[in-house]
């Protein structure tokens, strides 16, 4: 799908739909960020680097713990926005 529109007053407009395009970014966990494992208890994401993929509805976080085990989870955009506001997740790139 071509997101480019006809030029308007010399400007070329481009529309990006968050539903169709996600953004992968690098971030740091710098505080207590937790997720629910299934219907179970809340578990912490270890402090340090994570890869995040942001969509309109949710954010997927992927990390590797100190023992080299890979982990990933999805949280709601509301949770992500709250963690960002509180400084517990800091986007680095």
What strand line-up does the widest sheet have?
6-5-4-1-7
Element string (H = helix, E = strand)? EEEEEEHE
> Per DSSP, what share of the residues sits in E-state strands of 2 or more residues?
35-45%
Poorly predicted spans: 12-20
Number of helical segments?
Answer: 1
Domain module tally: 1
Taking all residues together, what is the mean pLDDT? 83
For the record, give the distance between the C-alpha atoms at the N and C termini, rounded to a whole number: 27 Å
> How many beta strands in the DSSP annotation?
7
SS-based class: mainly beta
Helix percentage? under 10%
- Rg, rounded, reads 17 Å
The best one-word shape is globular
Sheet with the most strands, sense and barrel status: 5 strands, antiparallel
Overview of the structural elements:
By secondary structure, this protein is mainly β. It is built from one helix and seven strands. The protein has one domain (23-91). The protein has one helix at 77-85; strands spanning 23-29, 34-36, 42-44, 48-54, 58-64, 70-76, 89-91. A five-stranded antiparallel beta sheet has the order 6-5-4-1-7, covered by helices on one side. Strand 5 and strand 6 form a beta hairpin. The protein is globular, with a radius of gyration of 17 Å. Residues 12-20 have low confidence and may be disordered.
Short description:
This protein is mainly beta and 93 residues long. It has one helix and seven strands.
Features:
two-stranded antiparallel sheet; 7 strands; 1 helix; mainly beta; 93 residues
